[in-house]
Amino acid sequence: MENTKTDGKEEEEEESVVLEIPLGDAAETFNLEKAVCSHGLFMMSPNHWDPLSLTFSRPLRLSLSDSDPQVSTPTTSLFVSISHPPHLPRSLSVRVYGTRCLSPKHQESLVAQVVRMLRLSETDERNAREFRKMAEEAAAEETNSWLTGFGGRVFRSPTLFEDMVKCILLCNCQWPRTLSMARALCELQCELQCKSSAVFVAQAVNATVKNKCNDTAHNFIPNTPADKESKRNIRASVSKNLASKIVETETLLEADANLKTDSAHIGRETLASVQNDSCARCSSRHGSDSCAPDSLQSQHGIQPGVNKIICNFPSPRELANLDESFLAKRCNLGYRAIRIIKLAQSIVEGRIPLREVEEGCANGASSSCYNKLADQFRQIDGFGPFTCANVLMCMGFYHIIPTDSETVRHLKQVHAKKSTIQTVQRDVEEIYGKYAPFQFLAYWMVVTKCRSKVQFTPMRTCILLTALEYEEDERVPHCR
Questions:
Q1: 101-104 contacts, C-beta under 8 A, 24 or more apart
Q2: CA gyration radius for the chain?
Q3: What GO terms fall under cellular component here (predicted)?
Q4: Sequence-ordered list of residues with C-beta below 8 angstroms from that of 243, at least 6 positions apart, any chain
Q5: How many Cα atoms within 13 Å fall on the side-chain side of residue 339?
Q6: Which end of the chain is more exposed for a tag (fewer CB within 10 A), N or C?
Q7: Under 8 Å CB-to-CB from 57, ≥6 apart: which residues?
Q8: How many Cα atoms occupy the beta-carbon half-sphere of 182 within 13 Å?
């Protein structure tokens, strides 16, 4: 990114590099807290939001080559923290821990991931502006102030693969289970990366690599029909009150954060002992724009200062060769394990070229492009209408609202509309169609505003919204 600035100054506690990402036109209205705490995905590991310092942090990979079938070596992850300090009103500050310098290629990769998560591209900014204008006009006509204030950005993951897997985790389960499965996948990634766990890896990797594709398979998406799953019995339960729901969800998040915490001595001593002096020599000889990849700090997810060790979300290559039963048991994924493995295999083997898929709709999300991608995604095992719509929403398609039993309840409570799973898609289009092509943004804005009846911070509102959404024992989405 041409306007990205680097600062190689060393702090006393740790080695780090600071990147400045210009916000451009988005600087006028951008709010980091609203951009991050806009969707429940921000609560899923390895993401971490600090509401006190208004800082978002997680590990990011220096390269996205793990999704490239031509690259066989895993890439390094470094911990980054993202903030919007007052002295930089038109830029984001991205601190990268564990290195003295970053090559231009690595800078570009890190910036691209931040831009994707916070939807800072020109297309994203244009969509946000158009939607805000539409919402303001609707608010003036309907005299509803709650139609304003939504930033028009919905948080997503740094990679499409992570979004796809997390959308699988959203289906047919309660929110605490979703958080638990995401956390377990990140813990597994740490175990797979640990050099001393050769026995663990030997048990995890299926020696015969099951389910290899036939050489005749040339389709960009595997034509694997989705298995019809048995319906879950929904047990009777007494609804908990609102306060207990908030406490329950916040307690889970606190437990999630505690799992990521290590002692101060481990964090600082590890960084000090592993840092390679070759990076310093590289910086002194060639300047900060040149740095060899193998000279970078290779510890996974160490964040000095707050002393957290957070594992990264596994890449397709790390999941592709795992045994189904092992993955299902280790991460409590159940039937989702085989679907995630097949997805990872298809990406690693080049049958699902994620980069080309995402670049194909980078300049705008048209209905024809949506229909084409939706048809292709539905051929992936486990990708029904609900999962597909969520993934495509993450890709920037806002004209289709992912619908499930919670949507039915929303229509009843907010719009006094009697709806069913069979009619809900038609019903939401009838209500939110006037916001085309941003129906989902309008729906999400209304859901968020209606759920927060008192003044909450964006993070508190998202926690409240999540607790309410998963009040039922099981959601009933269109998963197949």
A1: 101/6, 101/8, 101/17, 101/279, 101/282, 101/283, 101/288, 101/290, 101/291, 102/6, 102/17, 102/19, 102/62, 102/288, 102/291, 102/296, 103/289, 103/290, 103/291, 103/292, 103/293, 104/289
A2: 22
A3: nucleus
A4: none
A5: 27
A6: N
A7: 48, 50, 79, 80, 81, 82, 303, 306, 308, 310
A8: 33
Q: Are 320 and 29 in contact (CB under 8 A)?
A: no
Question: Quick one: pLDDT at residue 181?
Answer: 98
| Rounded Cα–Cα distance for residues 32 and 26 (Å) | 11
pTM of the model: 0.75
**Portion of the chain with pLDDT greater than 70, in percent:** 62
The proportion of the chain whose per-residue pLDDT surpasses 90, expressed as a percent, equals 52
pLDDT confidence of residue 455? 41
The residue ranges of every structural domain in the chain are 1-114+265-299, 120-152+398-480, 159-225+240-260+310-387
Burial class (CB in 10 A: 0-12, 13-18, 19+), 392: buried
Of 362, 326, 360, 356, whose CA–CA distance to 341 is shortest? 326
Helix residue ranges, H only, 288-363: 316-320, 324-331, 336-348, 354-359
CB contact at 8 A, 26 and 120: yes
- Sorted by sequence, the CB contacts under 8 Å of residue 404 that are 6+ apart come out as 386, 421, 475, 476, 477, 478
Give the C-alpha separation, 448 to 464, whole Å: 9
Beta bridge partners of 20: 5, 93
Residue 183 token pair = 């956390």
| Residue whose C-alpha is closest to residue 115's, from 369, 402, 392, 358 | 358
Q: Which residues pair with 81 in a beta bridge?
A: 57, 95
User: 320 Cβ partners below 8 Å, 6+ apart?
Assistant: 341, 344, 345, 347, 348, 349
> CB of 173 within 8 A of CB of 55?
no
CATH classification code of 159-225+240-260+310-387: 1.10.340.30
Does residue 144 or residue 428 have the better pLDDT? 428
Tokens read off for 475: 């959601």
The residue that leads in pLDDT, 46 or 479, is: 46
Distance between CA atoms of 346 and 378, rounded to whole angstroms? 14
The answer to whether the CB of 353 falls within 8 A of the CB of 220 is yes
CA-wise closest residue to 199 among 188, 187, 191, 209:
191
Q: Are 45 and 182 in contact (CB under 8 A)?
A: yes
Name the average pLDDT for the chain: 76
